Amino acid sequence: MTDLTVLLQSINAFVWGPPLLALLVGTGIYLTLRLGIMQIRRLPMALSLVFSRDKGHQNEGDVSPFAALCTALSATIGTGNIVGVATAIAAGGPGALFWMWIAAFFGMATKYSECLLAVKYRVKDANGQMTGGPMVYLERGLGSRLLARMFALFGILVAFFGIGTFAQVNAIKDAAQLTFGIPSWGTAAVLTTLVTMVTLGGIRSIARVAERVVPFMAAFYLGASLIVLMLNLGQVPAAVSLIVESAFNPSAAFGGAAGMSVLMVMRSGIARGVFSNESGLGSAPIAAAAARTDSCVRQGLIAMTGTFFDTIVICSMTGIVLVMTGVWNDGALAGAAMTNTAFALGMGGMGPQVVTVGLMFFAFTTILGWNYYGERCTTYLFGVKGILPYRLIYIGLVAIGAFVHLDLIWLLADIVNGLMAVPNLIGLLGLSGVVVAETRAYFAAREAERTAEADSAALPQER
To answer: Cα dihedral sign for 36, 312, 112, 382?
Structure first.
């Protein structure tokens, strides 16, 4: 096991080296500039679209635009928001949270672009369901079947061995065992049963669950986090100051961050940030492609808010609580145990229960969302005949996920995440002109409509 861990650590260090970090952040910066800092200028509009009444029911697609967003959020709001933030700060100090913010800011432009392309180039499979995402726009837009197949293969591996199964199941098992004393086999049995019941129904079943659970679980966890922050309000400014200062000067943080370079802190924050919000990874576009919508730009705007909610809002709550309570510097704590301890210190005896319940909801919905992602990648490679075997294998991996070592889980997740991101980022750079053209055309049409309405309203007065 030690030799395998060392090998995976070496592979992980290579995959997540400076070239990939530069490609991830660089792509986000490039798209941000080409789109005119859309994540600031268009965020209010994007948020209004999320909460507006669904008008896409007569358009092509499998689920409503909001359900598509909830499906994507079900996959992104997971252990990365609780366990992943703790892992990042334990490894890179408080400054890692700052680099998660930076990655998320530029990642919003990346998420917008990849989801726009997913809707523009989507196709129907033999069952009449929408198939879209990087594997489709890499082939139909960029003209590279090789990159498309690489992405689909890596997508299946991420679903099987990365974000989709092991990381989520293991995190639920740890939290349930620590807080409620539930044995590993009990967690495995319950999760396997629930996942089987939902995933065999396909995207519509997954979306129905996501639409109901995601808003509730996010509000529940945010409410608990706000209680902790309000109860300890005087310590929040110092925690935020330490986060920002140690991002550029790791020695400003005590204990675990001593001796670290800024690059190490950046790597920890960006890698864990990508694990959390999945911007650039190419996963969310697969859900976006299922939306009933007649506008790829509109769905791109809705999808962009996913990164905002995931990292700028939820991960920030977790990270500030961890830094504020000082548990990040306790070498005896890791993952869910660290976050449990932070909430226990912040709000008393109910803290661990809050974290455990939140983690269970987050991780369970992530399992559902990634089942769909892997299924669409399987459909692209093998056709609809591969769906049932894929689902059975996925359910089997969920069943054994509670018995896999945590360190190996995170290493595997990081490695396959990086491999999945590479072909997608190449596609985004190659198709950036399409993204810009579609965006300009959409907003030009909106402006023309507003001008026509204004002129029409003025006509009676002129008469």
So the answer is: positive
Task: Report which of 297, 301, 287 is spatially closest to residue 131, judged by C-alpha positions.
Answer: 287
How many structural domains comprise the chain? 1
**For residue 123, what is the enclosing H or E element?**
strand 123-124
The three-class DSSP label of residue 291 is strand
For residues 152 and 146, what is the distance between their CA atoms, to the nearest angstrom?
10
* CA pair distance 75, 375, nearest whole angstrom: 14
Task: Answer for the pair 221, 301: CB distance below 8 angstroms, yes or no.
Answer: no
Helical pair 406-430 and 262-277, crossing angle rounded to 10 deg: 80
89 inside domain: yes
Report the pLDDT value the prediction gives residue 409, as an integer from 0 to 100.
Answer: 67
Decide: 103 and 274 in contact? Cβ < 8 Å. yes
Domain assignment present for 461: no
Residues 6+ apart with CB under 8 A from 316: 97, 101
Please list the residues that pair with 131 across neighbouring strands: 123
Question: Half-sphere exposure (CA, 13 Å, Cβ side) for 370?
Answer: 36
Structural domain contains residue 96:
yes
Q: Nearest 5 degrees, angle CA 124-CA 127-CA 130?
A: 30
Beta-strand pair 130-131/123-124: antiparallel
Q: What is the DSSP secondary structure assignment for residue 80, as one 8-state letter?
A: I
- Domain of residue 314 covers 12-443
Contact (CB, 8 A) for 402 and 192 = no
What is the C-alpha to C-alpha distance for residues 261 and 273, in angstroms, rounded to an integer? 18
Cβ(67)–Cβ(146) under 8 Å? no
455 lies in a domain?
A: no
pLDDT at 459: 65
Helix, strand counts (H, E) of the chain: 23, 2
> How far is 145 from 143, CA to CA, in rounded Å?
6
Separation of alpha carbons 274 and 336, rounded Å: 19
CATH number of the domain where residue 228 is located: 1.20.1740.10
> How many beta carbons lie within 10 A of that of residue 227, not counting itself?
16
> Average pLDDT of each block of 10 consecutive residues along the chain (463 residues)?
80 82 91 96 92 61 78 74 83 90 94 96 90 95 96 91 79 78 88 89 83 85 89 90 89 58 82 81 91 91 92 92 88 78 82 80 86 93 94 92 71 80 95 97 90 74 51
Contact 32, 38 (CB under 8 A): yes
Nearest to 322 by CA among 99, 163, 95: 95
DSSP-derived letter for residue 63 is B
Helix axes 236-248, 262-277, angle to 10 degrees: 120
Residue 92: per-residue pLDDT: 85
From CA 331, how far away is CA 333, in angstroms rounded? 5
